[in-house]
Design brief:
Helices cover 10% and strands 56% of the residues. The chain has 188 residues and is mainly beta.
Length: 188
């Protein structure tokens, strides 16, 4: 927990070192959140299922705010998103099914956009999530591409992020929630 707090404070310090006349951008995104496998036997429930086995692909709606820092290739990125997953029935044997219950994640992330304002970029980030009134902490690893639309400073941002949503704070019997997020957004 101390390491997570220290990492958040380090990223926050980049925000405090913004130029007096810094650039910033605001984005609105929509896309899919795909539950993925963990590939570890101990990350399965008593029936041998993983998060991907008990939940359908979810809807992901997000916003972002990026601030220029002292370095022209580094932006501080703050994101807020909501992911909604419906449960699905999974066949246990010929007569028994296991059904996952719906799950909603609201996640606040802070990270560093490494790349120019337009073009390819990397986006590592730390995240704090609220799920079923419990907090969870994790991290994200993302890549993206921003293209200028040439209209009123609008840009199109396509990104793919792999999120480890509940690395810290998960219950003993809770499955790992790893998600591949595919988002398309408009940035101003």
């Amino acid at each position: 927990m101390k390491r997570l707090i220290i990492a958040f404070l380090m990223v926050l310090s980049f925000t405090l070192n913004l130029k007096a006349q810094s650039k910033f951008s605001f984005g609105l995104y929509g896309g899919a959140a795909i539950p993925t496998a963990t590939y570890h036997h101990h990350d399965r429930d008593e029936f041998g299922f993983e998060f991907k086995d008990t939940h359908k692909t979810g809807l992901d709606v997000a916003t972002s705010l990026k601030f220029a820092s002292v370095d022209p290739l580094i932006f501080t990125a703050i994101g807020l998103n909501t992911m909604a997953f419906d449960g699905k029935k999974t066949k246990l044997n010929d007569s028994t099914f296991v059904e996952g219950k719906g799950l909603n994640y609201t996640t606040l992330s802070i990270g560093i956009h490494i790349g120019k304002e337009v073009g390819p970029y990397l986006l590592p980030a730390l995240s704090a999530s609220l799920v079923e009134e419990h907090s969870r902490f994790g991290y994200n690893a993302g890549v993206g591409y921003v293209k200028s639309l040439g209209l009123y400073h609008l840009k199109l941002d396509f990104n793919i992020t792999y999120s480890f949503l509940n690395v810290l704070g998960k219950e003993k019997d809770e499955l790992k929630h790893n998600v591949l997020r595919i988002l398309l957004g408009i940035v101003y």
